[in-house]
Amino acid sequence: MTTISQVPQPTKIVFGTDGWRSKVADDYTFENVRRCADGVAKYVVGRGEQAKGVVIAYDRRFASEHFAAAAAEVLMAQDIPVAFARHAVPTQMSSYEVVERGSAAGIVITASHNPWTDNGFKVKAPTGSAAGPEILAVLEATIATNGGTAIPRRPFADAEAAGLVDWYDPYPGYEQYVRRTVDLDALKAADVSVLVDPMYGAGADWLPRLLAGGKIRIREIHSERNPYFGGINPEPIRPNVDEALGILAGGGYDMGLLLDGDADRAGAADEQGNFIHQLEVTGLLMYYLAEHRGWRDPIVESVNNTSMARTLGKHYGIPVYETSVGFKFIGPKMIETGAMMGAEESGGYGFGMHLPERDGVYADLLLLDLFLREKAAGRWPVSKALAAFHELAGPSFYRRIDVHVEAGLYPAVKERLMVELKAHAPATLAGAPVIRTDALTTNDGFKFFTADGSWMLIRFSGTEPLVRVYTEAVTGEIRDEMVKAGEALVRAA
Predict the structure, then answer these.
(1) How many other β-carbons are positioned within 10 Å of the β-carbon of residue 427?
(2) Where are the beta strands (DSSP E) in 31-100?
(3) H or E element that contains 341
(4) 20-23/105-109 β-pairing
(5) Mean pLDDT over residues 36-44, rounded?
(6) What is the mean pLDDT of the chain?
(7) CB 3.0-4.6 Å disulfide test: which of 103, 206, 281, 352 passes with 98?
(8) How many helices and strands in the chain, by DSSP H and E?
(9) How far apart are CA 329 and CA 18, in angstroms?
(10) DSSP class per residue in 420-439
(11) Same domain, 249 and 342
């Protein structure tokens, strides 16, 4: 029996909280990468900024450098010169290069912390921040119309011969840029031992290289390129970092510093191998800037981040602004408010004196500086410094779970759950009355509060077919009960 295959419809490409991501060889194809690049090219040409060029970077995932070259060929067909990375680099290095060069935009081929089967396409604004909604709306409008069409491209070698390619290595300039706000020599002189886990990603060798040549002892694990990421998602949270935590628990180290697959997210652990969760890191970095640097500029955090920021804000007289999830919202708000820091729950931290975009390498340097200053103040080891911090900021028992949904059912589950959570919001959580329910402004979830300040958030991911349940509570028992209740609500839908 003969069958006739239907001609596939062009993939619908939508940019989520941080770019577009999909499974390689399924939706993530060279054709679709070229469609995204065409959107960037049309945006740049529409603004008459071809001469400013576009920065292109890529991570260590499967074929990332080849997808990056495909994007470059589309741009160069429109006579837009590109600055092309000589090797895989952390995502934020594209932000640095965009700012330093005054480029029209940046493109990064990465799926960040997604499963190893995925890849992605991020866009940077001229400020170095993640492209905001106004830029992405232009890109998506173009992409919606270019499926199935022949997108012009200029062979890479031909364009390079014509002078349209500038190969770059961001390290030398980035090191000098960091030195404006971080005393690297003081960090190098510290008599401490640090374990670093870049999770096989693009951040490998950056911290050891920046801190080489002094007393500090750095051991880095998982430094080699491994597109399989050892079978884990390269996100610096448990259980992905359990191997590093086990090494720390064995003794011989003063702290652990962690990075995700494209090194724009940071994490940490104490000398006993206890994981310092992402919301704690938000609070610690805010405390560092206020207590040790004496700064009082605003803080911007995502709606799923810590209540400790409000506590610290009241203590230090620092304004705290809340945004929707994603640095495409946080970055522009940082610029608008002149914020000294922006932070999201997933471990992304940006800094006004540095870049209005996530930088895990820089955040880890600041965490190292914080703990060394705490050591000088007599709060050492790291576990003791952490305990003293919570005496000021209050308790934070945090957990997030991901409830995976079959991709084809995802839209229907989201629609049903959004209706049910609004019509039948839980009256109690962990035995306490729910005193407030907030609908997220992005219409993708709800946040529920109890009187003691504990909260639970149910939110649909913008990059993967899953529903996330977040909680921050004043005790571990309340946290666990809230997670259990949130998961039950999601699975019932």
Answers:
(1) 8
(2) 54-58, 82-85
(3) strand 341-344
(4) unpaired
(5) 96
(6) 94
(7) 103
(8) 16, 21
(9) 10
(10) HHHHS--SEETTEEEEEEEE
(11) yes
Please compute, for residue 228, the number of CA atoms within 13 A of its CA located in the half-sphere on the CB side.
Answer: 2
Domain coverage including residue 487: 397-492
Residues 283, 139: one domain? no
Q: Where are the beta strands (DSSP E) in 372-485?
A: 397-404, 428-429, 432-439, 445-450, 455-460, 466-473
* Longest Cα–Cα distance in the chain: 80
Element housing 32 (H / E): helix 30-46
Give the dihedral of Cα atoms 120, 125, 129, 131; nearest 10 deg.
Answer: -50
Residues 387 and 417 occupy one common structural domain? no
Report which of 484, 279, 487, 298 is spatially closest to residue 398, judged by C-alpha positions.
Answer: 279
Question: From CA 425, how far away is CA 427, in angstroms rounded?
Answer: 6
Q: What is the CATH number of the domain that holds 271?
A: 3.40.120.10
pLDDT of res. 467? 92
Number of residues in the chain: 493
The answer to whether residues 369 and 352 belong to one domain is yes
- Looking at the fold, whether 224 and 352 belong to one and the same domain comes out as yes
Predicted local distance difference test score (pLDDT) of residue 274: 98
More confident residue, 98 or 411: 98
pLDDT at residue 8 in the model: 60
Query: 């008459």: which residue's tokens?
Result: 48
423 band by pLDDT with thresholds 50, 70 and 90: confident
In this predicted structure, the answer to whether residue 1 has a pLDDT above a threshold of 70 is no
If asked whether residues 76 and 88 sit together in one domain, one would say yes
Show which of 370, 393, 416 is a domain's final residue.
393
**What is the rounded distance in angstroms from the CA atom of residue 109 to the CA atom of residue 98?**
15
Query: With contact defined as beta carbons under 8 Å apart, do 106 and 95 qualify?
Result: yes
pTM of this structure: 0.93
DSSP 5: P
Task: Note whether 178 and 273 are same-domain residues.
Answer: yes
Distance of alpha carbon 218 from alpha carbon 188, whole angstroms = 10
Of residues 347, 279, 308, 355, the one with CA closest to residue 96: 355
